[in-house]
Amino acid sequence: MIRAAVVGASGYTGAELIRLLIGHPAVEITALTSESYTDLSIGEVFPSMSGLLDLTCEKFDPPEVAKAADLVFLALPHKTAMAAAVELLPLGKKVIDLSADFRLRDPDAYRRWYGVEHVAPNLLREAVYALPEIYRRQLAAARLAAVPGCYPTAALLGLLPLMKREVIDPDSVVIDAISGASGAGRKLELPLHFSELEGNFKAYSVASHRHTPEIEQELSRWLGREVLVTFTPHLAAAVRGILTTITATLVASKAVEELLALYREQYEQEPFVRILREGRFPETKQVRGSNFCDIGVAVDQRTRRCIVVVAIDNLVKGASGQAIQAMNVMSGLDERTGLQAPALFP
Ligand SMILES: NC(=O)c1ccc[n+]([C@@H]2O[C@H](COP(=O)([O-])OP(=O)(O)OC[C@H]3O[C@@H](n4cnc5c(N)ncnc54)[C@H](OP(=O)(O)O)[C@@H]3O)[C@@H](O)[C@H]2O)c1
């Protein structure tokens, strides 16, 4: 049994980790932390968990968490998580960080995009970017996993076959993505109030979203040269789900069936990536609550551009499900363990 702790248990990704880990046959949740709900049982924080897990939220105390658990999920805001990892790793714990703190390999890039110095730049090189579809081998040996952002997960899985096979011009990539409000976390913010959100759709962080350098870092690593993308996120009046549309110019004319063949070949062995047949495109409702990433592909022959549509649940494949997938790899378990539930539909 893996003894696991969830640090930041009262947030959305923390709650999603607990929901999924309760059903994981190889995990026992042994510690939960929260600063605002200290001394409350998790059933009081989330009545939906009442009777399923008998644990109380404690203030985060690294030695206490390390005593209780072998592996720690950090579901904390960025800038907070890095300090927690620095305390837990020397105590011999495996750390899976859901924040952005260990995703960028370059400390200067971290400073530029997050506005503070990284407290452990040495760990940025060591952390494994926890996208198992790409870094499975490295993850298997990792003690520090940096779970990708929700938008980068969808964008990178959507782009991988096209980039690897060099069928698109890498400098032509445009990524438009729509997210539900849970992507912003549980903290209170005016734009996320029901009255502001309901019936509204808007772009935000245009040409400046912090997931941009993460997407560019990975694409640049794959190609061995700098790749820049245009990424525009949008907020929709929904709770869960990300729908991403990627467009890029084909270097030579291709039929959609040829592109679909590349996707099928790339993801043939992947338990959580589903390629839809020609003419079908993903919908967030088909992945809601599940760890699946659904991908549909089209070619606009008039403009010689391809269009890739990707759907994930931001809280599952975009965060907590992916974190558990990483834990399974890091622990030598079948990657699907505890993650096989289909989407909640409708
Ligand atoms: N939401 C998503 O779809 C998503 C997807 C991918 C990645 N992420 C990343 O995952 C992390 C968690 O996101 P979330 O959506 O779960 O956020 P959230 O709902 O706002 O939860 C954050 C958690 O951290 C705790 N916390 C806040 N400030 C803290 C501090 N200074 N020290 C210690 N604990 C603190 C919060 O509650 P207490 O006040 O009770 O401690 C809460 O438990 C973030 O870094 C986020 O960027 C989120």
What integer value in Å does the Rg equal? Answer: 20 Å
Q: Strand percentage, roughly?
A: 15-25%
Bound molecules: NADP nicotinamide-adenine-dinucleotide phosphate
Quaternary structure type: single chain
**CATH architecture type of the largest domain:** 2-Layer Sandwich
Percentage of residues assigned to helices: 25-40%
List the domain count as a whole number.
2
Uncertain stretches of 5 or more adjacent residues: none
Shape: globular
Biggest pleated sheet: 7 strands, parallel
How would you name the CATH homologous superfamily of the largest domain?
Answer: Dihydrodipicolinate Reductase, domain 2
Q: CATH topology of the largest domain, which one?
A: Dihydrodipicolinate Reductase, domain 2
CATH class of the largest domain: Alpha Beta
Query: Terminal Cα separation, in Å?
Result: 34 Å
Average predicted confidence as pLDDT = 97
The helix tally amounts to: 12
Summarize the structure.
Helices cover 32% and strands 20% of the residues. With 346 residues, it is of the alpha/beta class. Strand 1 (2-7), helix 1 and strand 2 form a beta-alpha-beta unit.
Task: List the topology elements.
Layout: E1 2-7, H1 12-22, E2 27-33, H2 42-45, E3 57-58, H3 62-68, E4 71-74, H4 81-88, E5 94-97, H5 107-114, H6 121-126, E6 128-129, H7 132-140, E7 144-146, H8 150-164, E8 174-179, H9 194-197, E9 202-203, H10 212-223, E10 230-235, E11 242-249, H11 256-267, E12 273-275, E13 293-300, E14 305-312, H12 316-330
Parallel strand pairs: 1-2, 1-4, 2-3, 4-5, 5-7, 6-7, 8-10, 12-13
Antiparallel strand pairs: 8-11, 9-10, 11-14, 13-14
Helix pairs in contact: 1-12, 7-12, 8-10
The site of NADP nicotinamide-adenine-dinucleotide phosphate has 31 residues, from helix 1 and helix 12.
